[in-house]
Amino acid sequence: MASLSISAYAADAGHTARDVDLVHAAGADSIHVDVMDGHFVTLTGLGDNWLESMRPRITLPIDVHFMTYAPERFAARFERYKPATVVFHAESSSPDAVRGLLGQLRGHGIRGGLALSPDADPASLVPYLSAVDEILVMTTHPGRPGSVFLPEARNHIRAVRRLLADAYPAVTLSVDGGLDDRLAFACIEDGAGKVVMGRSYFHHPDPKGLADRIHSSRPGRSRSESSRDRAVADG
């Protein structure tokens, strides 16, 4: 079934602790932490100081997404917070450094993954697929102010799903960028096993109900097919 990660970057900066508590209470599966350097992307994001202050409140798994150049320079600063997953962009470093960081993460018991930007070729992931635990497909331009969901990015979801389907079925296919509930379910139908939501989740009238519906959806299946599956399972 699909899982739900909530972007901490979308929390209300004046009420961060409240919003972190909401994520736990509403049934999300993990908290997504965007780390941006203002160079690889134009924005600056959350850092290890944010995790230092919030870590005592967080009992959910933490997913870290590096949108930085040379993420290997920063990884050790975040490893001490015991993230479940660290994802970064292959184009942010050299191929040797990418492989080295993926191996380092696994050596510390952390799931390692690569993020695919909208203007990147899914085929660029192929040399690394045996070393990754997750592929994060970006459906907006990462770290760009005012970015909106790019419908053509759904082709990337389907392409990555095909790359993983036979040879690497254990690799998680996740999606991040501009998702409301309708788009989240569309991405799950395309094959995403994890969706990352932000402001639309915090502003949703029933975040717990939304999390429950995502949990009951099967990647690669339409919502109507998933409903039929549940009906059969229920007898």
Number of separate strands: 8
Q: Describe the sheet with the most strands.
A: 8 strands, parallel, barrel
Structural class by secondary-structure content: alpha/beta
How confident is the prediction overall: mean pLDDT?
93
Q: Could you say which overall geometry the principal axes of the C-alpha atoms support?
A: globular
Q: What is the string of helix and strand elements?
A: EHEHEHEHEEHEHEHHH
Determine the number of helices (DSSP H or I, runs of at least 4 residues). Answer: 9
Cα distance spanning the termini: 19 Å
Structure notes:
By secondary structure, this protein is α/β, with parallel strands linked by helices. Helices cover 35% and strands 18% of the residues. The protein is built from nine helices and eight strands. It has helices spanning 16-25, 48-54, 75-79, 95-107, 153-165, 181-190, 199-202, 207-215, 223-234, and strands spanning 3-7, 30-36, 62-67, 85-89, 111-116, 134-138, 172-176, 194-197. An eight-stranded parallel barrel has the order 1-2-3-4-5-6-7-8, surrounded by four helices. Strand 2, helix 2 (48-54) and strand 3 (62-67) form a beta-alpha-beta unit. The protein is globular. The model has no long low-confidence stretch (mean pLDDT 93).
